Every structure is written in structure tokens, then in C-alpha cells.
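Database export, one record per block. Field names are fixed; values are copied verbatim from the stored entry.
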Amino acid sequence: MKKVLYILALYMTSSNCQDVVSIDAPNEEPRLIFDAILPFNADTPRENRIHVSTTGNFFDEIEPTLIERIQLLNTDVGGVAFYAPDPNILGDYIPGEDDVAYNPPQLLIGEPNPEHTNVLTFVYNEELYLAFSSYTSVPELTSVTQGTETLFDENETEIIISFTDPEDEENFYAFSFGDGEYVVIEDTFFNGQDYTFSYFTDQNLNPGYNLEVKMWGVDEQLYNYIGELITQSEFDENPLFQTPVTTVRGNILKVEDIDNIDLFDNVGRPQEFVLGYFAMIQERSQILTIQ
């Protein structure tokens, strides 16, 4: 595919001139983007919502996408949940059957069981895809407060987070600070201890603004996935999870290509994978009112 860009040249003497530059842009097949990170929050119920879209060619917009059947199976208790298109938001799917979504959508609340395994399956272009996820728990947030220090810029806001890490466990965490800002940490150096750290944001947070700080319990694979997204989003300055990163592999694969379900490895066509991720995780959150 070629896109023609017209570049205005400098005025020379009494006449104008312009150069025509022809650019060969990548012409790729559309790739599915499947956003299915579902957090359980005991304090603030979350909508049980999946967002599906597809990439286009280099200069094209990302488009919401209609796909065939989506279902979520809990292998330990045998329960099955189906998802239908949200009649109000194209590309969003909420619990429902026969293309009739529940209204209002089911909320995710309470304490998930870490022993349960969940299997997500869906059909797209007559191909079957699936991914696995086990619940990952997270400790309570001890406190979320505003500090007075800065790191690089005097306009930064310091957010101080405290929690107690469980003993004798290897834990991974992700924190959300709004506006696509995330941080991931692991407990290698503070296992079983009270832990406090500061995050500095340059968001324009006015006094009185209520910022919701979220803490997720994640497994090592999701920890690495979000870490890669953070690294790559720093280069293009796009908020995390809002622009697909084509080099970051998630955990959703075609059924026929799966070699090892524990590693989510695929062998036949290693480049054919879905952008995005499926996970059912526990979330804690607190509201910080900016001073």
C-alpha cells in the first residue's frame, strides 16, 4: 500500500514548489485485539466487560469488531458464562446469550477462589481461540496518601502506597494510577514485609480531584506482559492498553496451534496470535483526594 504525502517546500524566488513523496507503508492483515482483563473488586464492583477490536493497515484506525460466540468456563465448578454484544457500545461484550446482553451487565465483586481455573473460548473467522486464567489474590492496601516530594519535575504529584506482602509466597503486583499509567513490582526484596513506595505522576491533578489507585494481584506471565507494554508505551507516549503493541504476545492462541497449554506456546504458525490478554484477577482500590 502507498500513501502520498505532500510536503510544502521553501519559497524560492517568486514561485512556489512542492515535492511529492511516496511512502511504502506496511500492508498487513488485520489482527484481532482482545481485551479481557477482568478484575474482581470487593469495594467497587467492576463491570464484567470484554472489548474486541482489530488493527488495520499502517494509517488506518482501530475498529471495534463483531465476533462469534464468547464463553467463559470455570473448570472446577462447571459453570459457563456466555457473552453477547453490548447493544450500546460497539465492540464491547457483556454477559448474555443469543445476542441479548443482560441489562445491567453483571458486576464482578467479592473474593475470587484462587483454586479455580477459568477457560475463555471464542470463535473468530471460523477459527477457535482459547486462553486459561487462574484467580490471583492481592492483599489489602494499607494506605494511599499524597506526598510532597518530586522526582524530575516540580509539577509532579507524589503518591505513596503501603501494603503488607504475604509471607512465604512469590507475589507479583500491578498498580494503576489512571490515564493509562501503570507500574509492576515483585516481592523479591520485601517478601512477607510491610512495604511502602512512591509513584510520581505528571498528570494535571487539580485540588479536590478524586484519583482512584488500583492494585492488582497478577501472576508472573501477566506481570511480564504488562511490563513489556509499559516499556513500549514509553517510546510512543500512548496510554497503556489504548494502543496495541504488535510485538507483545498475550496468552490467547488458536486452538490448533497450541503445543503446551501450560506455556501457551504455539508451533504451527508462531506469528498468528491475538493481541491482548485474558485474566481474572483480584483488585484492591482506594480513592486519593488531591490536596
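Remark 1: The chain is about 5% helix and 45% strand.
Remark 2: The chain has one domain: 26-291.
End of record.
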